[in-house]
Design goal:
Layout: E1 6-14, E2 20-27, E3 33-37, E4 43-49, E5 55-57, H1 65-70, E6 77-79, E7 85-86, E8 90-93, E9 96-99, E10 108-109, E11 122-128, E12 131-140, E13 151-160, E14 164-173, E15 177-178, E16 182-184, E17 186-187, E18 201-204, E19 206-210, E20 223-224, E21 236-237, H2 238-244, E22 255-260, E23 269-275, E24 281-287, E25 291-295, E26 318-323, E27 338-339, E28 345-355
Antiparallel strand pairs: 1-2, 2-3, 3-4, 4-5, 6-16, 7-10, 8-9, 11-12, 12-13, 13-14, 14-28, 15-27, 17-26, 18-21, 18-23, 19-20, 19-22, 22-25, 23-24, 24-28, 25-26
């Protein structure tokens, strides 16, 4: 472990059944800090410097365990078994129909009511010459919320001295089952609760996107971004996109999956670049996944107080979720998300922080 890198573990709270929720803190040699819980793998803080060296926490969250247990926005959560939406909470694998637990109208969102965001993960910290981190593991029993197969999941969180927050996912199953894992981090690079993200400049390495219906389920089409509010191939503020897309966007902002260009099997490619002009903070995302869900915080509301007494209103934070496409089990033309016995699910995403 490099000099100056540290890992610490403290008690964050106690669940109603008496189990202890731990907070793990990772700090690299340059002072960047990432804190997460063994509950849901929830990342509760990401502290990074601006161009002047001033460190701020750039992800929203809460101060108490009780608030995280009541959270409906998946702040910083490790999401699965299936990130995003599955229409009508139903799919068929190898001729066998499965009904899963709905938690957003008739549809399943982010794994359902007992998804990975509610799991108390086993956490094993580690340190190596180039990074510090922890390995999170969980055995998801067959038919939890209706999903088939006993799924063994391993997720590695690691922090490098180069400002990289890395997520490495793997999983195996004993019965064919859909899987789609992501980290539901939100960002406001000016600092959590500091204004909105409409002035953030976003670049997406995506020339196509997935249109959605009124329930935010993909229609099955894959459309070009040319001439639309979804064209972020050159830097564009999120506010400009929202204003340009009054007739195209649903629910007043973005909650859409973008089809990434140039993704090669098993190789992480650049997916997005986010810049906040005032602080100079920059976030670059690389992933092996074919899609990136962009959610502009349309449903966030200031009715609940977050960390440090700050309120998070609409557009106060942006989620950039690396993943496969929503509803893939029901859309044969989308890349398959079915994991089979004898094979291994593997995925990698890197969130690299810097300044300009």
């Amino acid at each position: 472990m490099h000099s100056g890198s540290t890992t610490t573990v403290t008690q964050f709270g106690v669940l109603p059944d008496g189990r202890v929720v731990e907070m793990h803190s990772l700090t690299n040699a340059s002072g960047m800090e990432v804190c997460f819980l063994n509950l849901g793998g929830i990342i509760i803080a990401v502290r990074v410097p601006d161009r002047d060296g001033t460190i701020a926490d750039v992800t929203p969250g809460y101060d108490t365990l009780e608030e995280y247990l009541d959270d409906t926005h998946y702040f910083g959560a490790l999401v699965g078994r299936y990130a995003n939406r599955i229409s009508d909470s139903h799919f068929v694998v190898d001729g066998c129909a499965y009904n899963i637990a709905p938690n957003e109208g008739p549809n399943l969102l982010h794994g359902g009511p007992n998804g990975f965001h509610r799991v108390l993960w086993n956490v094993e910290p580690f340190a190596s010459p180039d990074r510090i981190g922890a390995v999170l593991t969980h055995l998801s029993p067959a038919l939890v919320d209706g999903f088939p197969g006993n799924l063994m999941v391993r997720v590695t969180y690691s922090l490098t001295d180069h400002g990289e927050l890395c997520f490495d996912y793997s999983a195996t199953t004993d019965v064919a089952t859909p899987i789609n894992l992501t980290q539901h981090l939100y960002f406001n690079l000016a600092g959590h609760g500091v204004g909105d993200i409409l002035g953030h400049e976003l670049t997406l390495y995506a020339s196509r996107y997935l249109p959605v219906d009124d329930e935010l389920i993909p229609t099955g089409q894959v459309l070009p971004v040319d001439g639309t509010a979804f064209d972020f191939r050159s830097p564009r503020t999120i506010g400009e996109g929202v204003r340009a897309g009054a007739d195209e966007l649903r629910h007043a902002g973005y909650d859409h999956n973008f089809v990434l260009d140039g993704v090669r099997m098993g190789e992480a490619m650049l997916a997005a670049r986010l810049r906040e002009p005032r602080s100079g903070r920059v976030l670059e995302i690389e992933t092996t996944e074919p899609g990136l869900q962009v959610y502009s915080g349309n449903q966030l509301g200031a009715e609940r107080v977050g960390k440090e007494g700050r309120r998070y209103g609409q557009f106060s934070a942006l989620a950039l979720e690396t993943q496969h496409f929503p509803d893939s089990p029901n859309v044969p033309l989308f890349p398959s998300t079915i994991l089979r016995p004898g094979t291994e699910y593997r995925s990698r995403s890197v969130y690299r922080f810097g300044v300009s």
